[in-house]
Amino acid sequence: MNSLTEDIKQHITDVRDFPKEGILYKDISSLFLNTELCHRIVLEFVKFSKNKVDAVCGIESRGFLFGPQIAQLLNVPFIMIRKSGKLPPPVVSKNYNLEYNKATIEIKKHFISQGQRILIHDDILATGGTAKACAELITECGGIATQFSFIAELSFLNGTQTLLPHCKEIHSLVSY
Predict the structure, then answer these.
(1) Which candidate, 21, 1, 22, 44, places its Cα nearest to that of 151?
(2) Which of 36, 39, 74, 120 gets the most CB atoms within 10 Å of its CB?
(3) Long-range contacts of 8-15 (CB under 8 A, 24+ apart)
């Protein structure tokens, strides 16, 4: 059996000029054709976070793919961080910049408890803008962003550097 890193890299494909010209998109969709690999991915994230977090926040939309499974195996709540307009009020919002546009995320403030330790999970770490905005949103709600986890990191975009002021525990399964 290959290492987890090798197996993940075999299933992630590059799509040039998506979602706009000049972007090299890392497509994770074929990961889900391999149930055994998905199980190994979830177990790796659970190992990283066991006894260190009180909840998992998944970033819409691909953070919803593994986030609930991680939360279930950790026996902690799963909290959705959604794009603007997707959650009914009351919500707390955060505007931020992406590498190719601007966005707004929202969370139900009352889903975060004061001092709650949060794992922020998403599929790809690029510039770190979205994950940073999530950490700021969680802090605003009284929680503590204690960990970040990603399937893949685009290390040339220095997203880890963006996240380090918020949290030192950053786990990416593969790096490009």
Answers:
(1) 44
(2) 120
(3) 8/37, 8/41, 8/151, 8/152, 8/173, 8/174, 9/174, 11/37, 12/151, 12/152, 12/174
Dig out the tokens for 2 from the structure.
Answer: 């290959």
d(C-alpha 60, C-alpha 8), whole Å: 21
Q: How far apart are CA 32 and CA 94, in angstroms?
A: 30
Q: Give the type of residue at 161.
A: Q
pTM of the entire structure? 0.95
Q: What does each of the 176 residues of the chain score in pLDDT, given as a tens digit?
A: 579 999 999 999 999 999 889 888 999 999 999 999 999 999 999 999 999 999 999 999 999 999 999 999 999 999 999 999 999 999 999 999 876 678 999 999 999 999 999 999 999 999 999 999 999 999 999 999 999 999 999 999 999 999 999 999 999 999 99
The per-residue DSSP string of 129-171 comes to HHHHHHHHHHHHTT-EEEEEEEEEE-GGG-HHHHHTTT-S-EE
Peptide bond before 165: cis, by omega within 30 degrees of 0? no
